[in-house]
Amino acid sequence: MTVSRSPRVVIVGAGFGGLKAAQLLARSGVEILLIDRNNYHTFVPLLYQVAVAELEPEQIAYPVRRILRRIPNARFVMAEVKQIDFAGQVVETEDSAISYDFLILATGSKSQYLGVPGAREYTLPMKTLEEAVALRNHIFSCFEQAVREKDATQRQQLLTFVIVGGGPTGVELAGALVELMHGPLVKDYPTLDLQQVRVILLQSGDRLVAEYPQRLGDYTQKQLRTRGVKVHLQAKVSQVTPQAVHLQDGTTILAKTIIWTAGVEASPPPPTGELFPSAKGKVAVLPTLQLPNQPQVYAIGDVADVEYKGQPLPAVAPVAIQQGASVANNIKRQLRGLSPQTFRYKDKGRAAIIARNAGVAQTDKLTLMGFPGWFLWLGIHLYYLPGLRNSLLVFISWVCDYLFGDRFVRLIFPQSTFLGIQSPPFAATDDHQPGAKQNIG
Amino acid sequence: MTVSRSPRVVIVGAGFGGLKAAQLLARSGVEILLIDRNNYHTFVPLLYQVAVAELEPEQIAYPVRRILRRIPNARFVMAEVKQIDFAGQVVETEDSAISYDFLILATGSKSQYLGVPGAREYTLPMKTLEEAVALRNHIFSCFEQAVREKDATQRQQLLTFVIVGGGPTGVELAGALVELMHGPLVKDYPTLDLQQVRVILLQSGDRLVAEYPQRLGDYTQKQLRTRGVKVHLQAKVSQVTPQAVHLQDGTTILAKTIIWTAGVEASPPPPTGELFPSAKGKVAVLPTLQLPNQPQVYAIGDVADVEYKGQPLPAVAPVAIQQGASVANNIKRQLRGLSPQTFRYKDKGRAAIIARNAGVAQTDKLTLMGFPGWFLWLGIHLYYLPGLRNSLLVFISWVCDYLFGDRFVRLIFPQSTFLGIQSPPFAATDDHQPGAKQNIG
């Protein structure tokens, strides 16, 4: 460690955990260097509302540099980490080598495909802002194609939307999708028979939102079914093809849209080898969140392998935030020559939204269903969303949606946004034999 | 014309003119078929505010199908027109052939490069939502690169922003850019010497906003210069290269960002041959806006060649809207066996915004400068922006910007949005010899 300058803390990842650590290290005498591949923080819990045309992507993205303005001892580097040299204490990006005294790995998670053949290639993920916008484009492209499609089977396929995974994300997306399709889209596509529209939620286990008490799961399932979602329990996906999802029980569901929310795995930076990869590619850490062989290096959030009551901690914002705070405190202690403290998770409970006026929430004290759960969910997310302007815009978007029962961001942005994300419908247009034109009217 | 069904009016283009025509043909006994390559209407006058991170792109885009909900006799087809068969009265898209009884061409305009070598390849346009977002990405990418760039010349180049064209669009963009760079970006990039930032406006003529009275042009120039824009009059661009813009007087300005607002030309659908192309590729029309040899076919907006007081009408929304209304009325007359009427343009004046509290506006009655002109401009655009929600969101965005003097949409969305749009800085990173890493700190 050079003595000529104040010790440098390098944070990789500007998610909930990384930002919290940076904020709590403000004015602490260290130099903070925050690295992220994007120049914005993504408010992941609202991603699905971007996908269903409820919110603009910019409303849930927040410029990192604006957050860092209040942290005078912090700098931002927009880059992708290519390699970490633990021996030399250097983080390498494409065009720079950044030395560190302390390192916080907060690189989050990516979709986990559980080894299902075709899942990675033929399902749409929803982990990033780019993917959420691509999903929005995809959904509305399916309707634009369906309204022109003369073949009934093809049309049915275009109007079938399968969501794999019955956790909170899958539930929230299913509820929002079915509302979109039975509300605004009925008005948008008067010539289309919307009885054909199917929103199918596939859950491998025997109940939805398994981390919630049984009765909340039952309520969730009842709500979704009442609103038109076809919920299939014990539905294990065996294979995904460009046009269909196949289940272990032999069922085949033809669909142009298969969305994957069935789980996440850590996305640690290279070299994973030295990071003692554990379950789901996570980074093994000590109770203090330090790496076993690297007292100067911490891992937090989705990327850290931490258990709580015998279960791995869920990949949610509160965990990352609490760990970011704990690590910031531990680094301050190390600088004062004190030993880092064990991370203790405080479970504040959980909340999920199902659909209009219907949500579930649970804390150690109370359990909420229906309108109270829905209202609490909205309040929590509005409270935690960074930025007054964003909060205002999101609030207005929600009010307009609630009053007019409409979704206003029904925009298909140019296909360029599909880059890197496979898009069945657009691929499907190639099926048309050239020159085979349909006559309208 | 088949008698079995009501006559069909096909409108190509969902811009200001096409939508106005559709709205006025509502419940008129005709069948309306509106064709556009996008499923949204773009509020073009505010595009530059998307480019400077003031507004979200979705705030100035509006779903066409939502507008058509109020027009029961209208249908929408999202497609690109490939060919028009005037003899057979058929509009052909990639996968359909659409017959028409009446046809309205409202296909708008595209950038005009005046035959300047390299202009098309190496300047950034700002005619579509996609291009405005790409420009936003580009501007902030330049700053992210500049903050890491050790070479002074390279850095100067990254921080030089040239706008070609001193019309309203160029003026509005220049004013907004200089505000962005001397305001929010100073706070975002404390380590960057923002004395290096240059916003240069190149005008080929001897004054800015030439269609306004002299003193408004002078005021505009004075305002821009006071706020830090380098205004060059009589500056004729002779060539554009990937790294610089060259003027006829021999001057060379090194810049990674060269934005082209120097003019537009019509973008008529094929076959242009039969459309009697006239000046700037426009479609020649009769005083009734009918095509000379096609009494059932009209052209409106930027694509139609119409003169007013000896000058071609400007490519602005009011012209398109008035022409859309006139054509709707003419088609109704033709259906009643009456002859179409001559289009008469009513000049309601013009308004342009320069920067905070500074605008120019002119009608036949009054001439406004400074705050009144600025306030009028905001009011007009808020009034004409389609959709209550969008108006609310834009209003809040403007208020937040005004109160906090900040731009909140400073997001660099993934490079995929650059597809089809060249991006000097990203190309420039290839200059780095591999492995030549800089050490940070």
From TrEMBL, chains A, B:
Family: Belongs to the NADH dehydrogenase family.
Domain FAD/NAD(P)-binding, first and last residues per copy: 8-324
PANTHER family named among the record's database cross-references: 64 KDA MITOCHONDRIAL NADH DEHYDROGENASE (EUROFUNG) (PTHR42913:SF3), APOPTOSIS-INDUCING FACTOR 1 (PTHR42913)
Gene Ontology molecular function terms on file: NAD(P)H dehydrogenase (quinone) activity
Cofactor(s) required for function per UniProt: FAD
Species this protein is from: Allocoleopsis franciscana PCC 7113
Lineage of origin: Bacteria, Bacillati, Cyanobacteriota, Cyanophyceae, Coleofasciculales
GO biological processes: aerobic electron transport chain
Record keywords, A-Z: FAD, Flavoprotein, Oxidoreductase
Alphabetical list of InterPro entries matching this protein: FAD/NAD-bd_sf, FAD/NAD-binding_dom, NADH-Q_oxidoreductase
SUPFAM superfamilies: FAD/NAD(P)-binding domain
Protein name: NADH dehydrogenase, FAD-containing subunit
